[in-house]
What we know:
The chain is built from 19 helices and no strands. By secondary structure, it is mainly alpha-helical. The protein has a single domain (27-304), classed as Hypothetical protein af1432 (Orthogonal Bundle), CATH 1.10.3210. The chain binds magnesium ion.
Amino acid sequence: xTASYAATVETSRGRQYPEPAPAYRTEYQRDRDRIIxxxxxRRLEYKTQVFVNHEGDLYRTRLTHSIEVAQIARSIARTxxxxxxxxxxxxxxxxxxxxxxxxxxxxALNACMKPFGGFEHNLQSLRVVDxxxxxxxxxxxxxxxxxxxxxxxxxxxxxxxxALGDVGRRFIxxxxxxxEAQLTNIADQVAYNNHDIDDGIRSGLISIEQxxxxxxxxxxxxxxxxxxxxxxxxxxxxxxxxxxxxxQVTDLIQTSEQNFADSGVVTIDDVRxxxxxxxxxxxxxxxxxxxxxxxxxxxxxxxxxxxxxxRKAHQIIEALFExxxxxxxxxxxxxxxxxxxxxxxQEEADYARVVADYVAGMTDRFAIKEYDRLFNxxxxxx
Length: 382
Ligand code: MG
């Protein structure tokens, strides 16, 4: 049963270029399908979540992460009576703008782009769906609905919001996005907090002993050990993670349902006008989840082995960016066309954006190969 405050096709703000309604799908299903068929979506398979793709076959990539976010978000959407199709579309598109090499790549590209307006991955996800996917005859980008685009643009600096028109409006007016967008944002955190524990333990970079210092993990782990004292470590960890996800999902559902009732929202317009977001953890779970994030930041994301890869990623991104900024003839032909267009505007920032789009679109291994092709004299592949 869809709730009255859910996003609906009937109340949708529509697409930038009006199109006839799909014959056998909803508008949001069409958004989801366009996302799945996009080039950017396929590239997620070879983009780092935490571990660079070639470090191991079993670690999460941006693609499997996005699928896990969609799974968690859809289950919650169904229970809360929200729009499951819209939720899925936002979840599958939410990381499309990520650079190669995860956050290291984003930080490096942002530093390179500092004189030209900076680089934000949320904004880039919107650029991918609005501009950079070029396969449709009648429009640029994927021409997604307003609600999917709104959900993709999770955060955005005020100066950038002003240039975005309708979808940037809420950052200026300080209004809220749909409940489906709010939900996907938290489902993202539930997914990465839990799968990073799993990948972190499997990689040997963090240990169960360390994790037992984090309340959220310790509580569930101790329960599992009490209930199944003979269970081996692999299964104990998996059982703990599965129960942690279940606990967080249940907390999120119960707290959000209470918030919906307390706030008195009836329509999506009420949701947007409300003073704060309504899809939330309880205060206790919010605090516990923050502690887990802090633990992962200190012990996994800044682990010296991860950090070494991070340094290399910085070097590759910086070197590629500099080379293309110095000489546009190094760009592949189709990007040279964009570069020629950008040059017409006489704005240096427009050309820098063409370079940033090209670098951001690379997968980890493509970036490594491109670096090798450009800077390794013994590499004969051009
Ligand atoms: Mg994500």
